[in-house]
Amino acid sequence: MNLDFLSESKKSLYMNPRVMVLAIDAMLVMLGFGLISPSLSFYLIALEGGINEPPGPGYMVPSEVVAEFSLILGVMMAAFMATRTLLARYWGGVSDKHGRKPLLIAGLTGYVILLLLFGLAQNWIHLVLIRAFQGVVSASVWPVAEAALMDIVGPKRRGEGLGLYMVVSNVGFIIGPGVGGLLYNFCRDVLQLSVPNVFRVPYFIAAAITLPSVILTYIILQETAPGKTGDVVDELAAITPASSEPVPEEIEGPETVDEIRPHRKMMVHALYIMSAANGISMGLGQPLFQLFLMSKITTDIGLIGIVISGAGGIGMLLSIPAGRYADAHGRKGLAVYGSLASRAGFFLLPLTKNLGQSSTAWVIQGASRAASQPALRAIQADIVPWKLRGKLFGTIQAFFNAGATIGPLAGGLLFSFFSLLTLQLGIFTIDGIVVPFWIAAAVGIFGAFMLWRYVEETHPVKIAETDEENDPVMDPT
Fold this sequence. Notes:
Blueprint: H1 4-7, H2 17-36, H3 40-47, H4 63-98, H5 100-120, H6 124-153, H7 158-189, H8 197-220, H9 226-229, H10 235-239, H11 262-297, H12 301-329, H13 332-348, H14 355-383, H15 389-418, E1 422-425, E2 428-431, H16 434-454, H17 460-465
Antiparallel strand pairs: 1-2
Helix pairs in contact: 2-6, 2-7, 2-8, 4-5, 4-6, 4-11, 4-15, 5-6, 5-8, 6-7, 7-8, 7-12, 11-14, 11-15, 11-16, 12-14, 13-14, 13-16, 15-16
């Protein structure tokens, strides 16, 4: 029986080489992806002849050109999410049976190869196909890496392990866009590369950055999958209290979905709908942001990268104190109001006229969403019965992923139709570009409404303050 995690219970996870190699793998992959994110939409348009000179200060991509390629950009983003959604569960099962290490090595190698192919692409069809295959390798890396992490740290340190893993990986994504923007500026101003070669270099650099993850995984990571090691860890025994203590009510909760009480089941269903709405809203908003910037505000990719990095950094700084606030003062309010503030950022963004205003709106959106996430995840964990968390958390994520697949397609289509129109709202004349942003905001607000209306507060302090006749959420079933 593999009980290695018990020997790690008194050690810092920062000193565990297997934990750190998984976290560093994630950071390197996210850093590589972040490098290319500020210039991806420009690269697409350049390959199709829509950009003839390297974008920079004083050069704007014509609005009609951006509108022409907006749907293709949406298809690119949806292709990634669709293949990832379809295969994540499959690759997880393969890793259980055949091993996590070989699948991780294959997936990370796939990342390197696909980044090189990205840099060699000749048209938008190549980009869409490569992006779809990126979804395939992403599905073989992220779920499997988290499963390996859980195997290593054991049941009592999963929260700490996931926290370390997420913080280290997010560092890569926060730094990546800023570095990617500066790298593009270097290729444009110092190397003086022409279009489209000026966009190709970051992909080759990203491949070089990701390559060490393959080597580190091969050398350091050990196999942890039960199907390969032959070990079966009785994790329930590891977390169940001694027989002299009462068994927590949560452990005795329902073991099937049909056993969940109707009131609790209604809240779980509300979480499904909310997750789908959040996925659509996010899927709409993220491609729209880049399209809006390049057509209305700036084509300075260096500045765009800094804006994306800055918003991500502020969001990460807020997430920890927001989680503590939710634990101390209640979860539902922070989850709802943070979500509403995030949608306000989508509402304001198309009304901005310069980079400072656009950056502020985007920071509001990103920081508010980051602040709401710890509370929202805690609510989900409180509502979903312990013995069903794996299954129902996976279902919640599936609803989000489905929405995030639909969102980019809808966003690209809406942008291509409305971005060149002018709308008359009473005495006000506004650009039609507001429509897709406001739809993204409205869908997100609907998700927040589902949370507010159908999901009750789950924080123990807040529950104690309610009247008993209100039937607060205390029963785990």
